[in-house]
Known about the structure:
31% of the residues lie in helices and 22% in strands. It is built from 21 helices and 30 strands.
Amino acid sequence: MRENNKPTAITSVLHEKRVFPPTKGFSSRAHIKSLAQYRKLYNESIKSPDRFWAKQAKNELTWFKPWKKVLQWKEPFVRWFVGGQLNVSHNCLDRWLDTLTANKAALIWEGEPATDGKPGEERVLTYKQLHREVCRFANVLKRNGVHKGDRVLIYLPMVPEAAIAMLGCARIGAVHSVVFGGFSAQSVADRVFDSQAKLIVTADGGFRRGTVIPLKKNVDEALTLKAANGDLLAKSVEKVIVLRRANNEVHIAEGRDVWWHRELDYVDAECAAERMDSEAPLFILYTSGSTGKPKGILHTTGGYLLGVKLTHKYVFDIQDADVYWCTADVGWVTGHSYVVYGPLANGATSLMYEGAPNWPEPDRFWRIVAKYGVTVLYTAPTAIRAFMKWGTEWPGKHDLSSLRLLGTVGEPINPEAWIWYHETIGGKRCPIVDTWWQTETGGIMITPLPGAIATKPGSATLPFFGVVPEVVDDEGKPVPRNTGGKLVIRKPWPSMLRGIWGDPRRYKEVYWSEVKRSYFTGDGCRQDADGYYWIVGRIDDVLNVAGHRIGTAEVESALVSNQKVAEAAVVGRPDELKGQALVAFVTLKSGVKPDHAIRDELRQHVAKEIGPVARPDDIRFAETLPKTRSGKIMRRLLKQIASGTEIKGDTTTLEDFSVLAKLAQSEE
Ligand code: WTA
């Protein structure tokens, strides 16, 4: 039964009144020390963006050739630092070689395999060592036919080689597209097809909760999958580089597949960084949208790097002695911007962990914090809620006193989880930065600066430099304070997406048509009396399940690709742990009877088509789906049904929507 008096995340946010000002001790040592200092810089960044960004780009980055023009804006297409040349891997690595940072740890890596009480493998790569590995791998890419501008698909576990592969691509000007290791062969094939990747970098396998994920096998399968017209989807792929990680048996196709470690024998460690145009593509990252097909979000060189470097420095208040740990996988944008590019561009120490937070036991994160003396921890609300559920005894077993700052990202954080994070993990002394941003924005957009901005549990607070958010109504007019509306961004910012790969029309349609002369985020938001932003979550057909973006249309098209399914509608319902859970309403083809076996088959089918992250939590069968007169599925109604009353234990019973639909129709 639903507990009606229990506040949901959103209602409790509406009543949240607590304010946590930055402590004096923290502020006095922070990069940005006061609200006044933040406001001064922010105003400068809005009033004279050219001057502000020119100064930042000059101070923060090493350029091979200076730019001619800071910003060229022809809505919705933007160019930053026009005419300038630089290289991302040069800025992340070479620039530290003549400094004391050369021998500092760039990456600390902890592997997953562990048995009770025994930690996994560990590796440390200094900046000098990482530079060498990146140069060698860049030469391996060249040796295997990769040139400037070519696309390379990276499908690896969370191992240092993932960062090495990304930086190796950046070094020679190849465009990487990282695909999360939890995605299926079909997803790999679709992404190869869309990006026309020439080469895939993968591993024999990766570890997850003690089992081996057969990455190479998935790649082999992806290479055999066909499009509707019978053509191979991945026919652009000429070579596959295979990293040995899990030692599981794999098939090596002569002439196509090569081992990473063997290739290294043929190359040296000298590889000059290509001079790249500031607007040269750096990476494509596929993300879910409100249609069935994931979008290849394109990020370029100069603006992106400046954006992630600055946000990483000021939001996490990075200091030389920090051991910084962002728990995201490199397969997501957070892994790109805040495990690899932002931290390395700042000469910071970035920790990478291969596995799950509760493997072998629910204290794995806290064990790692204590072991390496982690000072800054950046994770997702879903993880925090899971830790709450597992109990305080797990963090209680470890010394967490090294922590000085905590961050969250990926979904709205409910105040209860915020307070738990603050008290149990942060010992009440660590500020929390709740950072709002998206794959499309490249870097953090709305966020506290920990030494300057007082925090409120559940609010991402105020905009970062150069960001002009606004909450608007359906006509695009700003709404009064304390009123909900659509979140838009009014001005271009350096790390913004440059488009959807190969589809400028869709880019315009999705992001620049909903609200005039603004970037539409897809999120709902409210600004309080102090001007703080409170993000309430997606208002389009995108769900946020455990911090992963999933398009309902994508799951629907996966379901109807099963021969037994006639029609499907997918909606979200609130979930205490994951934020949202996926509920699928399915109509089966005539003659097919709903039963548990089909339900399992369909869940498996979605996992195979997209990946386990998209597997529906509930499947509910219906005779027909409720539709409006014009034939549109009544999602609002389905959402209410999905989140309302009790979820039937036996989900195989048919639901009869005909009466409900008629009732609701008269209201539409
Ligand atoms: C949501 C992840 C509330 C939001 C970096 C956004 C958040 C989507 C927050 C982007 C936050 C991210 N508070 N909601 N601090 N951070 N979101 O592209 O709905 O995977 O649009 O990027 O996550 O997800 P994406």
